[in-house]
Amino acid sequence: SQYHKMYRTVKATSGRQIFQPLHTLRAAEKELLPGFHEFEWQPALSNVSTSCNVGIINGTSGWTSSVDDSPTETVTRRFRYDVSLVSALKDLEEDIMEGLIEAGMEDSACTSSFNVMIKECCDGMGDVSEKHGGGPAVPEKVVRFSFTVMSVSVLADGEDREVTVFTEPKPNSELSCKPLCLMFVDESDHETLTAVLRPIVAERNAMKESRLILSIGGLPRFFRFRFRGTGYDEKMVREMEGLEASGSTYICTLCDSSRAEASQNMVLHSITRCHEENLDRYEIWRTNPFSESVDELRDRVKGVSAKPFLETQPTMDALHCDIGNA
C-alpha cells in the first residue's frame, strides 16, 4: 500500500509514470525466483518429484520421520536444490552465451557437455531473537545454507579440451551467493541440523549421478554439476563430518593431531582426513568391533563420534594458518 501511494502521488503530481505498476513488479519477481523455468533430468532424480514449478517449500519436507523421532523444534524454508540451480543458470544465460562467443565456439556444437562447479556454504547467522513479540517457540539462532556458481565450462563436440565460458568474478561476495535454505536452528544442534539438511544432501547425491537438460540461448543443453563444500568454517566442518566440537583433544579438521602433538610439531602436517574415512570411523565407533573401552575407542577413531552426513572438501583451516604463521 505504501508503494501504491507513492505510485499514485508521483503519477498525479508529475504526470509521468516512473514507477512500475505493482502487478508488473510481481510478474517480474516471479521470473527471478526459482520455480519459473522448465527443465528435465536424465535419468530422473531418484526420490525427487519431476515437477519444475516448485517455489518455496517447507524445509523439513522430504525428511521421513521414524517412530522415535520427536518433531523438530524448528521453522525452516527452502527451495528445492535442482530448481535453484536451474534458476541460477538462467540468471547466467547471457554470460554463458557471451563466453561461448568470446571463446570463438560454434553455438550449435556446444550442447552436450557443460560442467558447472558449485561452491556450497553453510554458516550460523547468530542471534535473531525477537526483541518483543510472541512468535512460535523456535531456537533463536538461524543457519543459512547457500551456494555459488563458481564456473561453467564446456567440452565442444569433437574437442578434447574443456573451455571455461563463465567464471564468477566475485566468488566471495554475498551478491553471488544464492540462499537455498534458512532454518531456525542452533548450528551446534547436530540432530536438527541433520534432519533439515538431509533432504538437500539426498537431492545433491541424486544430481551427481544425472544430467540436467535446460534451454540456454534457445537450444537445449546438457549440464553436469560438481559440488565442492568449501564454504564452511571449522565449526560447521566438524558438525558435518561428525568430529567432536572444538574443545576436543583432536583439534584439527584436516588431520588427526592432538593438542600435545601439534604443540610439539609446528611444521609437518599433512591432510589425512576424508569423508569416506570419517564414515568408516563412525562405523567403528558405533559397533566397537574390538570391544575396547571408551578411551581406547575414542583414540582409535580420533574423535569421530557422530555420523558424517555431508561431504566437505578439506581446505586450509584457521588452525593451520596459525601454525604456518607461527
TrEMBL record:
Residues 1-39 form the V(D)J recombination-activating protein 1 DNA-binding domain. Residues 40-111 form the V(D)J recombination-activating protein 1 pre-RNase H domain. Residues 250-312 form the V(D)J recombination-activating protein 1 ZnC2 domain. It comes from the Eukaryota. GO terms for cellular component: DNA recombinase complex; endodeoxyribonuclease complex; nucleus. Residues 116-248 form the V(D)J recombination-activating protein 1 RNase H domain. GO terms for molecular function: double-stranded DNA endonuclease activity; histone binding; protein homodimerization activity; sequence-specific DNA binding; ubiquitin protein ligase activity; zinc ion binding. Transmembrane segments: none annotated. This is RAG1. Signal peptide: none annotated. GO terms for biological process: adaptive immune response; B cell differentiation; chromatin organization; T cell differentiation in thymus; V(D)J recombination. PANTHER family: V(D)J RECOMBINATION-ACTIVATING PROTEIN 1, VDJ RECOMBINATION ACTIVATING PROTEIN 1 RAG1. InterPro entries: RAG1 (IPR024627), RAG1_DNA-bd (IPR058552), RAG1_pre-RNase_H (IPR058553), RAG1_RNase_H (IPR058554), RAG1_ZnC2 (IPR058555).
